[in-house]
Amino acid sequence: MFVTVTEGIHKLVVKFPKGMGEINSYLIKGAHGYTVIDTGTNSKEAKGTWNDVLDKGIPIEKIVLTHTHQDHIGLAKWFQQVHEIPVYVSDYSYQEMKCRRETNTKKKLACLVRKHGVSNFPEKSENESDIYNFEPNGIFTKDENIKLGDEKYETIWTPGHAWDHFCFYQRNKQLMIIGDHILKDVSPVIGLWTGEEANPLKEYFNSLFLLTNYPTTIALPGHGDPIYHLSDRIEELRKRHVTRLKQVFASVKDEAKTAHQVCYEIYGTTNIILILSSFMATLTRLLYLESMDKVRREEVDGKVTFKAI
């Protein structure tokens, strides 16, 4: 059931339908039980995995979340209210939780993607606001020390993939729990999942640079295998984004296009359900280029196009 990734830390792969299909939850051993990092989605499959853990008498002291995307926070409320296990989130994650309780983010997301050229986004989708409808037992902030298991970890705010994303760094071991900020084999999606325009790619670049200040022997991501050469992977991701930015810029160099049109040119499909992540990556790159005065938008009849300046 568990894979030992380093002394005192075990990985549990929690599988579920939809999305990425699985997540790495990390169990960090402590004198009073395990600290669990991230939970999986609110699904019967994920609950079944965790029930197997709990049925074996494995003690869980607390849940700590890297960020509030559904595959990471999905079972936090279940752990707290059904199994009486405390849940800890960052102050930024708490803000996100309250926002997702009180606003229809799915409707805002639909409006956003239609504004940027998508015509076939579904009118209705599953309402998952209930997973955010609980009060955390504790709040941590950036640049403080928190106890995971029996050791102290530094909290590093790394917005980009998610505005509220945090990494946890154990300086003596040069070990980082890195969530979805950096993955070994794929590029984390930079999106606008709350349906509001922002510049997350700029934040992501800043967060990548920030992590170069933390010597890391092993990084434990939310999906996939551990990363043993973090600085090399950071540079790979930076170069990949630069290459994609050049592609996006070239696409709108001579003609104004919507983000959906640019996405189709680069990724080759119009199925927004299959390619929503690629669409988001394209849109956030256009917004980044706009912030750098490389492209200019025009809005006509509620549709936005971008063209190189």
TrEMBL record:
GO terms for molecular function: hydrolase activity. The keyword Isomerase does not apply. SUPFAM superfamilies: Metallo-hydrolase/oxidoreductase. Residues 22-223 form the Metallo-beta-lactamase domain. The chain crosses the membrane at residues 266-288. Keywords: Hydrolase, Membrane, Transmembrane, Transmembrane helix. Gene3D superfamilies: Ribonuclease Z/Hydroxyacylglutathione hydrolase-like. It comes from the Bacteria. Pfam families: Lactamase_B. This is Hydroxyacylglutathione hydrolase.
